[in-house]
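User: Okay, second chain of the day. Same drill as before: sequence in, structure tokens out.
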Amino acid sequence: MASGAGSASDGRHGAAGGGGAAVAAPARTLDVDRSDPEYRTWLKEAVRKVQADANRSADTHLLRFPLPERWGIDLYLKDESTHPTGSLKHRLARSLFLYGLCNGWIRPGRPVIEASSGSTAVSEAYFAGLIGVPFIAVMPRTTSAEKIRLIEFHGGRCHFTDDPRAMYEEAAALAVATGGHYMDQFTYAERATDWRGNNNIAESIYHQLRLERFPEPAWIVATAGTGGTSATIARYVHYMQYDTRICVPDPENSCFFEGWTTDDPAVTGDRGSRIEGIGRPRMEPSFLPCAVDRMMKVPDAATVAAVRALEDAIGRKAGGSTGTGLWSALRIVAEMVAEGRTGSVVTLICDPGDRYLDKYYSDAWLAAEGLDIGPYRAAIDTFLATGSWPE
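Assistant: Same drill. Structure tokens below.
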């Protein structure tokens, strides 16, 4: 098919690889007496408020993507856009705040600073407001206007960078300058969440599938920004001794795929991802390449084609990272159909599409970026109509 729309390069991991370079723990300051009764009272109340948020929140839905019944394959989307802050990152932000509070890193009156392309910052601004501390998001200047509005709506402040690769250093410098805490999601995402259970996303998926005809999915597809979600799901699968395989799709301008296929944790890129929330110019410490079974490199035009196909299929707009995952999930389903295998596949709705109306749902933006989604959308439509993926 023209323009390479029929393929998304993938590979399988061989020898052991590593994550990103180690990052030192936040510097400890000596200006707070942590045995002080007033501080301990504040800490208890802050932890209670964060835990209460989880207690108030119902689980997110597991939606079905319509496929022909004769295929004997079920495709599900875990809809993380229904969290209070509208994205998968709500789970991560809650875990990071509990981790920072219980480690003694977040202090009353001192700001929390985060390097983020948007959704994590929205969720962290919410939790910072919940416990009454200032929040500053260090983010690319190209971040969608709607995400910026949401960060400010929750009481956060945005600090912009022209080079996405500079976010880490600027966030760390702001923490030093303000006496605050650099949350550093890219280092701590994989360790702040209890991957053995405790209502993490993996446990939730399996619980919701228990009455389905294929309760143990053949594949779970999870995109990577920090890598924390794929690490949590993969660890849980291994811990519970399931046969499910984990696939991590990677967008253009991201180095995860290259680092995974070459076993090179030092690989870097020279630009930021156009698909907000996923893809990084360096191998992040929270991305665990040894834990996943497969990666796919997904063209950005294929990502946009997939989110538009999703809207046609279920009537819901979703963000770009959802499209990257859906494209890969559909490719896996196509392989299963071709091989005569039955089973289920799960991917994620990471955040809502109304945050990206000026990007992935804008034909003017596509033209400005030089993205032609036509061949990729034709590939999806042909597959859903015939069961064969066009080559």
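The chain has two domains: 56-86+194-385, 87-190.

User: Thanks, on to the next one.
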